[in-house]
Prior knowledge:
It is a single chain. With 660 residues, this protein is α/β, with parallel strands linked by helices. The chain has 3 domains: 6-204, 2-enoyl-CoA Hydratase, Chain A, domain 1; 239-416, NAD(P)-binding Rossmann-like Domain (Rossmann fold, 3-Layer(aba) Sandwich), CATH 3.40.50; 423-646, N-(1-d-carboxylethyl)-l-norvaline Dehydrogenase, domain 2. Helix content is 45%, strand content 12%. It is built from 25 helices and 19 strands. The strands form 4 sheets. Strands 12-11-10-13-14-15-16-17 form an 8-stranded mixed β-sheet. It has a 6-stranded mixed β-sheet with strand order 1-2-3-4-6-9, sandwiched between helices. Helix 15 links the parallel strand 16 (384-389) and strand 17. 3-hydroxybutanoyl-coenzyme A is lined by residues 25-26, 28, 64-69, 109, 111-113, 116, 135-136, 139, 143-145, 147. The site of 3-hydroxybutanoyl-coenzyme A has 21 residues, from helix 2, strand 5 and helix 4. It is found in: Peroxisome. Keywords: Fatty acid metabolism, Isomerase, Lipid metabolism, Lyase, Multifunctional enzyme, NAD, Oxidoreductase, Peroxisome. Residues 420-524 form the 3-hydroxyacyl-CoA dehydrogenase C-terminal domain. Its main location: other.
Amino acid sequence: MAKKIGVTMEVGNDGVAVITISNPPVNSLASQIISGLKEKFQDANQRSDVKAIVLTGNGGRFSGGFDINVFQQVHKTGDISLMPEVSVDLVCNLMEDSRKPLVAAVEGLALGGGLELAMACHARVAAPKAQLGLPELTLGIIPGFGGTQRLPRLVGLEKGANMILLSKSISSEEGRKLGLIDELVPPGDLLTTSRKWALDIALLSDTAKALVHVFFAQRATSKVPKVTDVGLKPRPMKKVAVIGGGLMGSGIATALLLSNIRVVLKEINSEYLLKGIKSVEANLKGLVSRGKLTQDKASKAFSLLKGVLDYSEFKDVDMVIEAVIENIQLKQKIFKEIEEVCPPNCILASNTSTIDLNVIGEKTNSKDRIVGAHFFSPAHLMTLLEIVRTENTSAQVILDLMALGKAIKKVPVVVGNCIGFAVNRTFFPYSQAAHMLVNLGVDLFRVDSVITSFGLPLGPFQYISPSCLVVLMLGDLAGHGIGIAVKDIYAKAYGDRMFSSPLTELLLKSGRNGKINGRGYYIYEKGSKPKPDSSVLSVVEESRKLTNIMPGGKPISVSDKEIVEMILFPVVNEACRVLDEGVVIRASDLDVASVLGMSFPSYRGGLLFWADTVGPKYIYERLKRLSETYGGFFKPSRYLEERATKGMLLSEPKSSRSRL
Ligand SMILES: C[C@H](O)CC(=O)SCCNC(=O)CCNC(=O)[C@H](O)C(C)(C)COP(=O)(O)OP(=O)(O)OC[C@H]1O[C@@H](n2cnc3c(N)ncnc32)[C@H](O)[C@@H]1OP(=O)(O)O
């Protein structure tokens, strides 16, 4: 049978034109294929019924690149005119400049000119195990369809140069990790997913919707009923006292100084004070060395700092922010003292992350002036500021702190008073779920890699909560001792839904304290990326023996999707409780807080926006099934159950009606 050679185009009812290269066996780019592609792209660009384009190859192979037979003919005949002059016209003018979104559906292989065509598309969807590479150098030529430029842009200069110079191909799985491939799907889903991608780009992509949501959600945080709508005016905050010059205190002081606010930094002795002042200086120097601040501005900011060992400078401060260690008695004593020495209107704020503000202010008569100013570490860099109000905090005090937050370039989110407040409370199941998975037999490095693929910057075993409280985010960067210290406070508050894992204690016992001593789940060496430490697996085994939760003593088998669900659905579940208890004013506040406080990917719109796109019913049913198999940790909350059964979104305000 004659080989069917050519390029076809089919336009579906969805307005997607599928352009298919057919030149068996590898769909090489012979002259007639290149002219066929040119013609079809021109046609698709002109036709008004075509909204988007998908480019693919026939017979399970995208394309093996330019037709090498042409080179052979040129060598034989010396006729250079046999080489088609196409790269600029086809790849740049017609494909890359096309106003219609173009998605490559890659299967089998995309080599040489084949990969270059795919890279000229706006996105690439691939089936597993596809071979991707630019092997031109093995033929004594360089990639001629723009691959030398596009590959390094997509995978980074080092990797790109490596692939070109060594003619090294990679799999689509590796391509997905490097950013060359946008989505990996089973072969049967390749065309459907590529069409969806093309239409998403053509219409409003999910990413754009999510980012626009985050934009407006961030603006909505500045509207607080009965605070910002009752005609109050914020009072000027010119001089602020910070008590405690540790990591948090010095970071908070730096943030204030950078916005020209005079800061009095108080410590208990001159050694600690000097340390605190040096930390502020180092923070400022860091900004200068990274080009974020001029030396002049850094010097001006530093000149506004005054270190003190007593309260004499407190008589004219507008606000005090206490940032000492999490010790109830100490905080109560400090609040009693500052109530006496500060002016009667001075705001008395605490940077606590675990202790109830009502308890902190118990011994004072100034409960209306007491408020939480919960910064995230490093406080001079992280933009989230949780403003924690009690039932007694006055509207004026909340407004003042919101205005101060904005002045120091933070995004203030007003939240209610509970253990962990909004962010740490919502995310406390995050690392617990990861620990449960590992105790159930799942590889911990896989868990980290799945979570980073989802879009969080680090996996749960590397991660540190950027809050001064390291909650139960027992990642290497935190230093594992800290996590254990606060575990009890959470267990007391939310013990009925906690998973207790001995893994962290065992890790510490084995001499690993995370990044602090260069060894945790990963090995940390100066100047190189953390490396998974396989010797930690014996510690993991010990933990598994103790928890003994693997069904039938065998590791469970889970897909990557299930790993994401088992880690993030319990977080969504806790977010539902936070909403139900009115800890946040609106669901979108938690989206902003999760993006800015926990680096939840903004392109997913924040935690609850993402959960609503997944669907409350699906999340409820998954959690219900998981709780039947693995116990109460996964038990769906009342709020989630109600939303799922009524067909309501999690983010819908309580009063609104069901959409069904
Ligand atoms: C402008 C650009 O930058 C320039 C370019 O694109 S230059 C071309 C770059 N591409 C390449 O170097 C790929 C070369 N091909 C290969 O490495 C391998 O053939 C392959 C990995 C694609 C497939 O391997 P495999 O499945 O083992 O099949 P293999 O027997 O090698 O090839 C099958 C047939 O396809 C042909 N073929 C493969 N690639 C071809 C190509 N690019 N052009 C013309 N024919 C090609 C082979 O000659 C062979 O033909 P035959 O059946 O008549 O003998």
